[in-house]
């Protein structure tokens, strides 16, 4: 979501239809899907072709698969039968019992109660609703009937388990939420029990009524409801609301003017919902439930454990954090955006008689430099573990904002210390690398490329272009880390790379010279033959950091096409040099710390050639480079082809060695024909 990029895409054949949501097996990191109701597919992230993935045809139609973090996936069939995935895969064609008849499943969920998975689902038949509770490992099944009420038809359900009791919440058509309690204790009664509904919450406030479509439980005292808020004499407006069920109050709400799909998901203190045409992610944090908080009369001095309830917004440049207001217990800002990478969020806990993170940073906005840095260091040392990353992200944001407003200010050592010692990411401080680029701080950029896992391709390209354009004299005055190059680039005192003799695996220049149509002048042959490094060690170390960074080819390629031709040729020469160096080694691995791998080198070479092939073919200075690269790759292909020819003989030798008596000494001569 933060990178706005597809990480994987799989499709079924034409005519096939995915008939239930795909889930991830959290234990094996495999995806599980069902198409055409009965065909089960299981695959991993590295699998490309879904048609070649594991396939099992089941004997009954699947309604839904639920994945439990510790209990594995469980499969709910349309007829009400439940199986764990392990049991189902042992015999895919096993008979599935019919638990329900002429009933349609309206909602289902799975939970862990102790070590046992529990599946709960609600069915409907002729306006009546039934609740089923199954424990597949214990072959336990209980059926209940929901108390019928003519004026309140259930629209949406959610549930949670505590102390062997299921609390089922029903969002009903009369703009109310009802609570139903179901015991998980074994009950010997055979008669169908009727579950009584108790009113939990009326979705109305100040004359406005919320027509809810979906709800989720946040904690024991709070629920979130997505729906349409209708006020007398006004048009209904779709909004996300959070309610305090203990005190029957609306805690906070957010209007969604672009409309929603009516679905709301909640996972790890984040809301997920479709707003317009984008997926919106909103972070929240539950506050301590108290009457003062519920009616909005909470004061900072009385609430040591209360924090902002919802972060609706990404922070603008002038806003450092979302902080508590003196008369409010929640902070309402503008719409949450799709791009989480631009978030600089701090959910800061308010301490008694002290300022929140947001208030402190705002108070330091115009403070002298030494005061600012001292206060920020103290803030990082006092930050609590749950909020540590967000607090440090806010600190870096405060420093970069100061750099923007004051061009002469740049705390290089302070920023380096934070990046090197803290577990940061690009999304926590998105302006840091931009400021470092502006200041030509290549050392900080190198550290960021090595440590940040979520750098956008546009920023990766900007770093590459800067590293290729900065002069060697400037680089030699910097503190670039040379650990990735010092083991394979020999440096003399004058900082010139020593040319070493290269003996490539299977490559002989004399044998292959006549196979290439391009004649290379002897005086220029050494520039592109891969024997000497075309860049100095400082530039090489920076380029290695770029080669090591994560990227998506789809998003990087358009930026690479903008790289100037001469810089592209220089980078390709360096990649070719690395390729030759890797080929010297039997294990094709470069020595050193964080040195590029052979796969990374080849991927970047392919990317660069895809982006600039036409230009390189036209440039005379690139012709010898392409020619040498072509010869070397062709020699490698021929060498491995020859190895493949004797693979069978080598395996036979290995087999004979196993059969031979190891205690007998002998000398044998074997001819490989």
UniProtKB/TrEMBL annotation:
Its main location: nucleus. It comes from the Eukaryota. Pfam families: Nol11_C, NOL11_N. Keywords: Activator, Nucleus, rRNA processing, Transcription, Transcription regulation. One of its GO terms (cellular component) is nucleolus. It is found in: Nucleus, Nucleolus. One of its GO terms (biological process) is maturation of SSU-rRNA. Residues 364-671 form the Nucleolar protein 11 C-terminal domain. Residues 1-285 form the Nucleolar protein 11 N-terminal domain. The keyword Transcription applies. One of its GO terms (molecular function) is RNA binding. InterPro entries: NOL11 (IPR042859), Nol11_C (IPR048897), NOL11_N (IPR012584). This is NOL11 protein. The gene is Nol11.
